[in-house]
Known about the structure:
Shape: elongated
Helix content: under 10%
CATH topology of the largest domain: Immunoglobulin-like
CATH class of the largest domain: Mainly Beta
Number of strands: 54
Largest sheet: 7 strands, mixed
Oligomer: single chain
Amino acid sequence: MSMKKSTGLVLLLGVIAVMFVVSCVKQVETKPEAPVNLRISFLAGIVGVELRWDEVAGATGYDITLTKEEASGSRAVLGPYSTAKTYYLVYRDDVGAGSFSWTVKAKNGAGDSGASVESHFTLDPDPEPDPVYGLTLTLAETPDLASSRDGIPEIHIWGATTSIPGAGARVPGSPVNLNYLAGRIVYEEVSDAPRETMSVQLMVERKGSGVAKRWPDSSTEFLLNGDGELLFGVNDLGQNYDPNRLAPGEYLFWARAAWDKNMQSTKKPFNIVASTDLVEVSLDVSNQKTAYPGKVCGIFPEAQIDYDISVSGVALFDELRYTFVIGQLGVDATGNVSKSATFTGRTAYATSVTYATECTKFATVTVDGTLTRVFWEDATKRASETKLGLVEAFEKAHSFVLDLADPTALLSLELPAGFSASAPASLTSATLTFLASDTKCLQPYAEKINFKVGVEKGSGSWSESFAFFTEEVVLGEGSPWDNAVTIDATYTATKTSATNPDEAEAVLGFAIPIMDYATVTATMSVHDCCCEECTIKPGKCDNLNNALRHATEVSTQFIVDNVFFSKLLEDEQVFVPERFLGDADNPLIPASPTQATLTVKLADALWSSAQWGAITWVFHDAQGNVFNSISYAPTIKATELITGECSGYATKTQVTFVGTLTADPAATRTEKALTLVATALDATGNEFVVELPFLFDTVPPTLTHFTGFRDKVNNHSWVEFKFDQKAESAELAIVVGENTFSYDFNDAVPIAGIPNAFRLPTGITLPYNLAITLKATATDLAGNIGFSSRTCTVSLSEKR
């Protein structure tokens, strides 16, 4: 029993200990995160905002800081303002109006978070109250000449008037107002004080100038009547704007109290405008309802033009009269049509005329009239009227250029002396001069004048188009024959007056380095200034066979053939040698009976059997003398067409000549350097000279020296010999007494420094001081075979 009690006590004490340990552990608190999702809402009925953010876990409160941007540019910090809620109200009455930025921090017992991201809001001030004026001003345009002007009154002026009898004195050319501004000033009570009699000053200012001037002068003041009212009229800007009292522009007009210059009326805007729209005149020029504002291009030598005019005037006019004149009519352009009429309000007139001459045509509408001027008369303090006579005051003119002719185009071709454009010519230059002319206009020249040059060669032809003022043109640039055609151009253009023709000249200089037959065509296209919009359209029944085109084209051509085609080729394309001997650059003609074959291929675009059948083939020696001991008499093996694009005409006639050559020693024994010469001409006279070098050799090698030796020590023997020319092979034999010994030429060793000299070991002991003979049958490169022999006495010699 006592054991159970002690066990229970132990358990009780353990529980108490655990509870004590737990209660003694301190709980650690951390700082909250910075608030996020800042936002504002404007308050209703009062100027202020509600600042809101999302709740932060672990936060027990929040601090809000405002930063206000002052007008001076500085920044004032307000707060912090503390709250336990997730919003805060800001009132303009507390912080004032302006632009603000704000941040919020969360806080608890561990401290506060960092500041949130900055947000912004603005509290607007109350609008300024309208000022209270003691003077009220009104201005009214009288009479109102244009009521649709957004309510701004205007004084209309006219500056080109002249007087008519009974209409009142006028100074010609000086501006005058046609209406005036009716002004009214009322002194309004702004307090309980009784109204009193007072005077006012009137002010005028050009809008935007910032300079106010008294009106009508610097001293006049106006006394209000007993009702505090003043009526007046404004005809102009007053003396302080002399001499430009009626200068057009935008102005401000107002009144101020003479005793208190801080009391004034509102500033009323008004304008002074020059009356250019009192009369409206329209003048239309057309044909079949197509309008022509500045140019008319007839499609036939005569042009019918329709004129429509209309004239209208404002109600101020008592009477209007127009005069319409059309001039430059008839075959000599001296006739005219005139029409006049008197009217009020609006009138119209239409007519048609036919022009048969070119020039700048004019039509003019002149309008006269009488109108009523309304102005304020200071003496009577009321409006008055007067009559103004306007003589030629309004004029509407229309002019247009009438073009009834095609432009003119001329050309001239200048070739070197002796050449003709109608036949192929061996020329390398040509000059083409183009002249364009029009009675009216060719401008802009680069748009109206164009050129096209073509080089026709059958295949691979060249063509270039270019405009006036292009200084250089190259046709066939990059040709493999290096034969591009270059055109250097110079230009002049003149238009001295409206009545003189417009002329333009182009000089095209052709440089043609190499061309084997080609036709050069040059064309100039000229357009005058007419366009589709200004050309009178033909009617359905008009005969278009003789219609004007307002464009002209002129063209010419010449034929160039200034080279024999074979001259452009490499030697291996022209000459094919076979079975010749020696060096290819200096071939050796073989000796008879061996024969070599020479094939010559000549080609040109413009030649025939008459030319290739006349070719002669001749050999010349080094001195230029004809060498007749050998000849080349080829036959024509083939005639065929080949292609050589870009060199000229693409198709060439190639003739193949084949002949043999052999040197006959029986006929002539000589050795010479020869040149085979032949001249081929094409139909234009261009030549190709064949010059082929050859070696002619009919002389065989022969012995010129022979000596025999025996070594006096060991009795070895040898011979030394020399040929007059190089031997390709030889049969050698040495005769000693009655015995003959044969040797191979290949066993002979050349002796250094001596051409064609050899040393030959005999293999026998030669008898001292006895005669021996060397017999040689030698053959040279050409195939010439010669026999020769030499005899000598054997000498004793040291070993060599």
